[in-house]
C-alpha cells in the first residue's frame, strides 16, 4: 500500500531539501564500498596488530582466510542498569561469530552517562554533549578499518543517537543495533510520581522517597517508563536497525540471548562478502527517518528525539526540520498510553502487542513507508512479526491482529487522539516545541503572567516560599546549548505539577530541555534562538503576559514590543568549571542551534 499523500509530501520535500547533502554523502559511501573489504587495505604489520590479542582460531582465520569480522562498539558500564547486561554480550557475540565462520572483536567502548543520576546536578550539563562524544569515540574504534560490519550495544538517552551518528559516518559497512531490554516491572510509575510530589510538598521525608525510587529502579535493564531510552529502542525498530521485536524483551531471558545470537548471525550475513550486502548508509534514508517520525508521534515518545533525529539525519546527509515533525504529528494518530502519557509501562505495552501491532496498523493505513531497506531485508512489513523460541531455535511469527489491551494500545481507527503528541510552536518569542500527549486538553492553552528565572534552583526556592501559588508561566532561560549545554529540567516537574493540582494555570517556557518522562504540565521547550544567542526570551521581564497555545501552535508575549527592550545577559562563568565542565568549553562555543540538532559535529542550522 502506498503512503498517504500527507506523508509522501513531507518525504518529498525532505528528499528535495537534502539533495545538496545526501548525494555527496552517498557518493562517498559508495566509493568506500568500491575499495573492497576493509582489511585488504591493511599491511601485514597492520594485521599483526589487529590479531595480536586474539585466540589461535580467530588469529588464523582473520590473518589467512577471508572471513567477515564484526567490530563491536559497546556502551557497557555497570552503573547504568540499562547497560549492565552488556557485560557478557561481547563473549556471546565472539562465540556466535566463530561458530558461524566469522569473527568479532570489541572495537571500542563509548561513555554512557545516566541522566537519572545527573538530573538537577552539574553533570547534566554534559549530557547533551555526550552524544557527540559518543559518536567521536565510536568513530575512533571503527577507524582501525578492520571490520566488515559493526554491532552497536547501546540503549539510553544520548547513547543511541551518538551511535547512529557514528554508524552513518561509517555508512559503507552494515550496522546492527543490539538492545538489552527493559527491567521487569516494579513500583508503578504513577505511584512513584505521586511520592515525588508529596516530597516536593514536604508531606513525606527522604526515606519514603528513597523507598519509592528503589522500588521503581530495581534491577538490570532499561527504566520501564516511556522516556528517551525506550523511545530510542522504538526508533531503531521503525528505522530497521534492530531485529524485529527485539526492543522490549527483558534481560537475562532465553529469548533475549537468542536475539543477540541472531543479531550476530545477521551481521555476518549482510556484509559485502555475502549475498545480502546492506550498508547502513542505504538503510538510513529519507523514508526511514519519516517512519521514525511517525513512530515517535504514534507512541508519544520523548521530546529529546526532536533534537537527536535532526542530528542523526544530518550525519547521513539528510536535512529534516521541526516543521517536518510537526506536520507528521498532525496526521499521525496517538495509539499508545505508556507512562507518562498513561499508567502502563513498556512491559505492559509490549504484552499488549507493542511495536509489531503498531507497525502493522500504520502500514495498513498508509502512514509509514513499507519500501525501505532494513537489516532483515526490504520492507518494513518484516517488523510486524515477533520473535519466539520454537524447539530451541528463534522463529518470527505474525503478531496478533488485535490489541491485547485497548487501554494501552489502540488501532489507527480508534486512537487515543487523532494527532501525535508533538507540536511546533511559533511566535514573537521564537520557535519551540511542546509535547501534548500527556497534557489534558483543557490545559494545553495557558495565558498568564511570566516569572523569570535563570536556574532550576531559583524556581524551587520560589516554589517553597509560596511565591508561585497563582496562575503563572515559569520562564527558565540561559539553559540552551551555548549557555550551559542544555540540561534537562526534569526536577521542575514535581513542583509545577503540585501547582497545577492546586488548580492554577501553569506552564513552562525554556530554552532548555525537559526529560523524556515529562508529562502533564504544558512545556514550551528547546526555544530557539536561546537567551545566550540574544533570543527574544532574553528580553522578557517578570509580569509579561505570555500565551502558550499547544492547540494553535503559538508562543507569544502579549502587548509588548520586544524590540524596544535590551537583551538581558547573565553571568555564565559558573557553568564553565566543575564535574568536568571545563573540558567542554569548546563545545559550548561551537554548538549549533537547538533547531539544527544542537550539534557540535554538524553545527550548521537547518533552515
From TrEMBL:
Family affiliation: Belongs to the IlvD/Edd family.
Listed PANTHER family: D-XYLONATE DEHYDRATASE, PHOSPHOGLUCONATE DEHYDRATASE
Name of the protein this chain belongs to: Phosphogluconate dehydratase
Source organism per UniProt: Pontivivens nitratireducens
Alphabetized Gene3D superfamilies for the sequence: IlvD/EDD C-terminal domain-like
Xref: Pfam families: ILV_EDD_C (PF24877), ILVD_EDD_N (PF00920)
GO biological process, one term: D-gluconate metabolic process
HAMAP family: Edd
Superkingdom in the source lineage: Bacteria
Primary enzyme class: lyase
InterPro entries per record: 6-phosphgluc_deHydtase, Dihydro-acid_dehy_C, DiOHA_6PGluconate_deHydtase_CS, ILV_EDD_C, ILV_EDD_N, IlvD/EDD_N, Thiosulphate_STrfase_CS
Cofactor: [4Fe-4S] cluster
Keyword Lipid metabolism: no
Its biological purpose: Catalyzes the dehydration of 6-phospho-D-gluconate to 2-dehydro-3-deoxy-6-phospho-D-gluconate.
Gene Ontology cellular-component annotations: cytosol
Pathway per the UniProt entry: Carbohydrate metabolism; Entner-Doudoroff pathway
Binding residue positions for [4Fe-4S] cluster: 156, 223
E.C. no: 4.2.1.12
GO molecular-function term, one example from the UniProt record: metal ion binding
Amino acid at each position: 500500500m502506498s503512503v498517504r499523500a500527507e506523508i509522501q509530501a513531507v518525504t518529498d520535500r525532505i528528499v528535495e531539501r537534502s539533495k545538496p547533502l545526501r548525494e555527496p554523502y552517498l557518493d562517498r559511501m559508495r566509493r568506500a564500498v568500491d575499495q573492497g573489504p576493509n582489511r585488504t587495505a591493511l599491511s601485514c604489520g597492520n594485521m599483526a596488530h589487529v590479531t595480536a590479542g586474539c585466540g589461535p582460531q580467530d588469529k588464523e582465520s582473520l590473518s589467512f582466510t577471508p572471513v567477515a569480522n564484526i567490530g563491536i562498539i559497546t556502551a557497557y558500564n555497570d552503573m547504568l542498569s540499562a547497560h549492565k547486561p552488556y557485560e557478557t554480550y561481547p563473549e556471546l557475540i565472539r562465540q556466535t561469530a566463530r561458530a558461524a565462520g566469522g569473527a568479532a572483536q570489541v572495537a571500542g567502548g563509548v561513555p554512557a552517562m545516566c541522566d537519572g543520576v545527573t538530573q538537577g546536578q552539574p553533570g547534566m550539563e554534559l549530557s547533551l554533549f555526550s552524544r557527540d562524544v559518543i559518536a567521536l569515540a565510536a568513530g575512533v574504534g571503527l577507524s582501525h578499518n578492520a571490520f566488515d560490519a559493526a554491532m552497536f550495544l547501546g540503549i539510553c538517552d544520548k547513547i543511541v543517537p551518538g551511535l547512529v551518528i557514528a554508524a552513518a559516518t561509517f555508512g559503507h559497512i552494515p550496522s546492527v543495533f543490539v538492545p538489552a531490554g527493559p527491567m521487569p516491572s516494579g513500583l508503578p510509575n504513577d505511584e512513584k510520581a505521586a511520592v515525588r510530589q508529596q516530597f516536593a510538598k514536604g508531606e513525606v521525608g527522604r526515606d519514603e522517597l528513597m523507598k519509592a525510587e528503589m522500588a521503581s529502579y530495581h534491577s538490570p535493564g532499561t527504566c520501564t517508563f516511556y522516556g528517551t531510552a525506550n523511545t530510542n529502542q522504538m526508533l531503531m525498530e521503525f528505522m530497521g536497525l534492530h531485529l524485529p521485536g527485539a526492543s522490549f524483551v527483558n534481560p537475562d531471558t532465553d529469548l533475549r540471548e537468542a536475539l543477540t545470537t541472531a543479531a550476530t548471525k545477521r551481521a555476518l550475513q549482510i556484509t559485502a562478502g555475502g549475498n545480502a550486502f546492506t550498508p547502513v548508509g542505504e538503510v538510513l534514508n529519507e523514508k526511514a527517518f519519516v517512519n521514525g517520525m511517525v513512530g515517535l508521534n504514534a507512541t508519544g515518545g520523548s521530546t529529546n528525539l526532536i533534537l537527536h533525529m535532526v542530528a542523526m539525519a544530518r550525519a547521513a546527509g539528510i536535512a529534516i526540520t521541526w516543521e517536518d515533525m510537526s506536520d507528521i504529528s498532525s496526521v499521525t494518530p496517538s495509539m499508545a498510553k505508556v507512562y507518562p502519557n498513561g499508567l502502563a509501562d513498556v512491559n505492559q505495552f509490549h504484552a499488549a502487542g507493542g511495536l509489531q501491532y503498531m507497525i502493522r496498523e500504520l502500514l495498513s493505513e498508509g502512514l509509514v513507508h513499507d519500501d525501505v531497506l532494513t537489516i532483515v531485508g526490504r520492507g518494513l512489513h518484516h517488523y510486524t512479526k515477533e520473535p519466539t523460541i520454537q524447539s530451541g531455535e528463534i522463529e518470527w511469527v505474525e503478531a496478533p491482529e488485535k490489541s491485547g489491551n485497548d487501554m494501552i494500545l489502540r488501532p489507527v481507527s480508534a486512537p487515543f487522539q487523532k494527532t501525535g503528541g508533538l507540536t511546533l510552536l511559533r511566535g514573537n518569542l521564537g520557535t519551540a516545541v511542546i509535547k501534548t500527549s500527556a497534557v489534558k486538553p483543557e490545559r494545553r492553552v495557558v495565558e498568564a503572567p511570566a516569572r523569570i528565572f535563570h536556574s532550576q534552583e531559583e524556581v524551587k526556592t520560589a516554589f517553597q516560599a509560596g511565591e508561585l501559588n497563582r496562575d503563572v508561566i515559569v520562564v527558565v532561560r540561559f539553559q540552551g546549548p551555548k549557555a550551559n549545554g542544555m540540561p534537562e529540567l526534569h526536577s521542575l516537574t514535581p513542583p509545577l505539577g503540585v501547582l497545577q493540582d492546586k488548580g492554577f494555570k501553569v506552564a513552562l517556557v525554556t530554552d532548555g530541555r525537559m526529560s523524556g518522562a515529562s508529562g502533564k504540565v504544558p512545556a514550551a521547550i528547546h526555544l530557539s534562538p536561546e537567551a545566550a544567542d540574544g533570543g527574544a526570551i532574553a528580553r522578557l521581564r517578570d509580569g509579561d503576559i505570555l500565551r502558550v497555545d499547544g492547540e494553535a501552535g503559538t508562543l507569544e508575549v502579549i502587548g509588548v514590543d520586544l524590540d524596544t527592550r535590551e537583551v538581558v545577559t547573565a553571568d555564565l562563568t559558573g557553568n564553565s568549571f566543575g564535574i568536568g565542565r571545563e573540558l567542554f568549553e569548546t563545545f559550548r562555543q561551537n554548538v549549533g542551534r537547538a533547531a539544527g540538532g544542537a550539534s557540535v559535529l554538524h553545527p550548521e542550522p537547518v533552515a
